Amino acid sequence: MEKRLDHIGVAVRLIEESITFYTEVLGGTLIDRYRNEAEGVESEIAVMDVHGSRTELLMPTNNTTSPIARFIKQKGKGVHHVAYEVENLDDAIEEVHAQGIRTLEWSRRTNKHGRRLIYLNPADTDGTIIEYCDYPDKQEG
């Protein structure tokens, strides 16, 4: 199945400072900003577009339970995940499972923009959190 880079997720401590860097230094544009307080997400997200490339800035909103907070505590701020768009998320999950790659089922969800996503287990990806995602509404239209 074909995959293409969708976005990079970056864990940040202070989202305002990060937005300023992405707009003033990199010349990017803030596309969207929202909070997701769902269990296993608990973060504020700023979607940045830098000349056609997307970056999601991820700031934890709960320093006890947010996976972003845990990531920052363990590894520091910086690249959290790399997301690849796939044609069909369900088919892509079956494909990686057949290859012996596990997924983090707790991470499977649909975001506010209709993007379905899941993280691959970093134990099976040389330590990198890889997100697979699709956009079912985009495919139908």
TrEMBL record:
Regions crossing the membrane: none
Taxonomy, superkingdom: Bacteria
Domain (VOC) ranges: 4-135
Keyword Transit peptide: no
Family annotation (Pfam families): Glyoxalase_4
Cited Gene3D superfamilies: 2,3-Dihydroxybiphenyl 1,2-Dioxygenase, domain 1
Keywords noted in UniProt: Metal-binding
Keyword Cell membrane: no
UniProt xrefs under PANTHER family: METHYLMALONYL-COA EPIMERASE (PTHR43048), METHYLMALONYL-COA EPIMERASE, MITOCHONDRIAL (PTHR43048:SF3)
Record-stated family: Belongs to the methylmalonyl-CoA epimerase family.
Name of the protein in its database record: VOC family protein
The organism's taxonomic lineage, starting at the top: Bacteria, Bacillati, Bacillota, Bacilli, Bacillales
